[in-house]
Structures are given as structure tokens and as C-alpha cells.
């Protein structure tokens, strides 16, 4: 019983770890501003798909790990991730009936809120950054969402059909 439960959670944990690694992977300066918010996208998907299992607690832990890994203000990404995951869990039943294009627009709004929170916290802490570092991930994440959604939906289907 316990082994079956762990095997169902393993692919999800692996996708979160891969998202953390993709977020920390060094990129050239020219493309770094357009790096998607991998962790935010993954957390939105799992909170949308499995809201009872993956919610604000997992988002908080992943956000703290991201803050420590990037050397950001402690709790900055954790707070922003918690808020977008909370909104995703709260409205997941409504979002489930959205067609993919409307879901993509919703993800755009969630990513924009995530970046706005990071911008606001950086402003309070007097940390400056060019505007492309805030808008680039929103645009690239929104464009990437339909592909990521299809890929992760396949993983979710395989995991649920196995158990």
C-alpha cells in the first residue's frame, strides 16, 4: 500500500525537482531574461490537477528552496508561489471547464501576478532589475504553457491509470 502511494507521488516530485533544476540552470545573458518560471508553471499544473495533494504547503517548501538556491530574499518566491497556488486551488473547479486557450490566459494572469509580487518585494527591498526580467518569464511561460500542459497531463494520466 505504501509503496503504491510512493510510486504515484514520485513522478510529481521528480517534475518539481526538474523545474527547480531548470530554474537554476545557467543561461546566456541574452536569453536569461526570457527563462520561463518553470517552478511556477509546474506548481500551477499540479495544484490545478491534484489540489488535495499539492497545494500551498508544497509551494512554500519549493519556494524556500528556490530562494536559497538563487540567493534571493528569503520567502520572496515562497510567498509568490503560495499566493498563485492558493488561487489555483481555490478556482480549480472553475478552471477545469476552461478550454485550453482560456486556461492559457488564466496562466498568463497567474504568472503576471507572480512576477508583480516579486517586483513589489524587490521594490520594498530596494533591489532594481530591468523590466524584461519581469515580463520575459510571463510571456515565455504563457507561450510554453500549452505544450507543458499536454506533457504533464500525459504524465498525470499514466500515474493515475497505474494506481
Structure, described:
The structure is a single chain. This protein is mainly α and 163 residues long. The chain has one domain. The protein contains eight helices and no strands. The protein is globular and about 50 Å long. The mean pLDDT is 92.
In short:
With 163 residues, the chain is mainly α.
Give the SSE map.
Blueprint: H1 2-24, H2 29-32, H3 38-49, H4 56-70, H5 76-90, H6 92-96, H7 100-124, H8 132-162
Helix pairs in contact: 1-3, 1-4, 1-8, 3-5, 3-8, 4-5, 5-7, 7-8
Biggest beta sheet summary: none
Q: State the separation between the terminal residues, measured CA to CA.
A: 10 Å
Q: SSE order in H/E notation?
A: HHHHHHHH
Ranges with pLDDT <50 over ≥5 residues? Answer: none
Helix- and strand-based class?
Answer: mainly alpha
Count of all domains: 1
Query: Would you count the extended β strands for me?
Result: 0
Mean of pLDDT: 92
- The outline comes out as globular
The percentage of residues in β strands lies in under 5%
Helix content: over 70%
List the total number of helices: 8
Radius of gyration: 16 Å
